[in-house]
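User: I'm putting together a small comparison set for a docking exercise, and I want a reference complex before I start. The sequence is below, and the ligand is magnesium ion. Could you produce the 3D structure with the ligand included, as structure tokens?
Assistant: Of course. I'll restate your input first, then give the structure tokens for the complex.
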Amino acid sequence: MPEGILIRGIGSFYTTRTDDGGEFVLRAKKKFRRLGLTPMVGDRVRFTPGTGEEEGWVEEILPRRSAFVRPPVANVECLLIVLSPEPAPDWLLAERLLVECRRQEIDSVLVASKSDLDGGALAETMRRDYAAAEAPVFSVSARTGEGLEALREAMAGRLCCLAGQSGVGKSTLLSALTGLDLESGELSQKIARGKNTTRKAELLFAGDLRVFDTAGFSLLALSGRMEPETLRLYYPEFIEYEGQCRFDECLHDREPGCAVTAAVLEGRIAPVRQERYRQILAEVREAWNARFD
Ligand SMILES: Nc1nc2c(ncn2[C@@H]2O[C@H](COP(=O)(O)OP(=O)(O)OP(=O)(O)O)[C@@H](O)[C@H]2O)c(=O)[nH]1
Ligand SMILES: [Mg+2]
Ligand SMILES: [Zn+2]
């Protein structure tokens, strides 16, 4: 049976693409609904092609390597977390995305876009604060072309997805990277309409790039429930201090004798990383305590 990857879903029709570039429009078998399974863009599927008279069918969805719920995209291998000088960075969104990536073992990359607006200052801040976060930083401008080639190289060969708040320039960047003409919009108009410019998820192919164009990551809450004790494991800069705190169960929040807090005070961990960790920890705690409500 032929295999392909879902690149688009409109209503109950899914477009799949085979490795040799053929495209087929399919519907999902009813059994998926019984299984509580909805095909997602990025899913690898086995399918029966249509005949012209009869439509084709998705027969099997292969196990997902990773999945985001909102926007619904599967099998992302590298998430590009885009921040810009304007609109101002939503650091907590970036932080949640980083945690989610580590949790699902997805590679992450930090992108400081619109470098023409601030001369690369945002990228410098990111390099200082996230040096130990295991997410390389790229400074790019879709307007001037700065940094695009380096980013393109980092993306090549893996299924990538751009994420970030509305207006940071994801679609514009994607157009510049792929040469495709994608929908992007004026910030002011979008805020007036209160809507994202990009509404759907779609998997784009361009040369050796395979990348999702999506909207809606701004709504991301950490998907699923996480024990508050787990969060610290997703902060690589904390790992070497594990077991050195006064209390075995230290969450590196505000406990006395915390080795992570000491490392922050001594300048060995970026202060904003612990601050943001504490804010995410509060969110995780709240969700965890409400899990039986
Ligand atoms: N100065 C400058 N402006 C840019 C750059 N890239 C994008 N913009 C502008 O930023 C605004 C938003 O760009 P989009 O590409 O629509 O942003 P988006 O992240 O796709 O937004 P959503 O689809 O709403 O999530 C547009 O007015 C773009 O012209 C850049 O490199 N430099
Ligand atoms: Mg967009
Ligand atoms: Zn501690």
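Residues 228-289 form a domain with the Ribonucleotide Reductase Protein R1; domain 1 fold (CATH 1.10.40.50). The longest helix spans residues 271-289.
User: Thanks, that's exactly what I needed.
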